[in-house]
Amino acid sequence: MENVLRPLIVIGGSVVLTLLVGWLVDVMLRRADSRHTETPLWGLLRRCRLPLEVVLCTALLRATFRQAEIGVLEDHKTGIGQLLTLVLVGASAWLVVRIATAVVESSYARYAATTRDPARVRRVRTQVALIQRVVIAVVGVVAVAAMLLTFPAMRAIGASLLASAGVLGIVAGIAAQSTLGNLFAGLQIAFGDMVRIGDTVVVDGEWGTVEEITLTFLTVRTWDERRITMPVSYFTSKPFENWSRGGVEMTGTVFFHLDHSAPVPEMREKLHAVLLECPAWDGRDWSLAVTDTSPNTMVVRAVVTAKDADDVWTVRCAVREQLITWLCDHHPYALPRISTAQAAQPPGEHLPPEEGSARTGRG
Could you tell me which of 350, 246, 253, 257 has the C-alpha nearest to residue 300? Predict the structure, then answer.
């Protein structure tokens, strides 16, 4: 009878105690979350209940499984202890990552709720994402190292590994030169405020929005929903356009190549009317002016503003479409055309039609 009760008490008691502690911690975190609504930290920490229970249960079993005296497992106590140790190390790393993620996400949420500058919010979001990845990588490496050191063979070769660490470090540095360059470039982007998640950029002639930044690569989502993935070292070694740098407001231009007889004042009034009916226009500024001429046409430039790159594209398309339609309907003579009439002669000079036509053809 004792051979049955002892394992049940040891294993069942560990499980029951684990569930009880997990439930108590969850209740306390729920109450703290309801009292402190200004921060989401306590609600985020509730995600740590499962890894906490795994850590607690594994630790209890690791400390008491020898007292269970299970006959079938007597010859495998060493292996079971080793397995429980590995599970305990892995669960502890899981718990640390969950706690660190909760703290970082809570800090970002509070900062985003109290900051009105979208550029600063995107910068902090980029830094938070990279910090989380660094923490996960460091904790993972430490956990794997701790697991390996639990094996006697690994401890035995530790001295030889330390003796050859210098040579191995040099070889690894040369072999991983590109990877290390991207790693440091990722940290430089995160804390140098060069580019942030949500920024509108132009790289290699492609216009898009920065969707993801990791320690080694960066993903840009283009306007047609393609994803361009490139190493982060690209942004530290080559020039690129960042339309969100210093603010998301944008100024766009629309060019019209028209005949010299185009009614510019009426076009200016029509442009203003079009902008007043366009929801994407932010009302900051607008203008229309003749910026260049050629022997056959003149260049009319319309300047519009919008709150971001997407809206400025919408405004430009609306202005271009509606002004061209208006010119076709009301002022078709203003559209560019190829003149086939005889050239006008200077005053006092009268040439025969044949000679005038020949001179026009040569000119």
Answer: 257
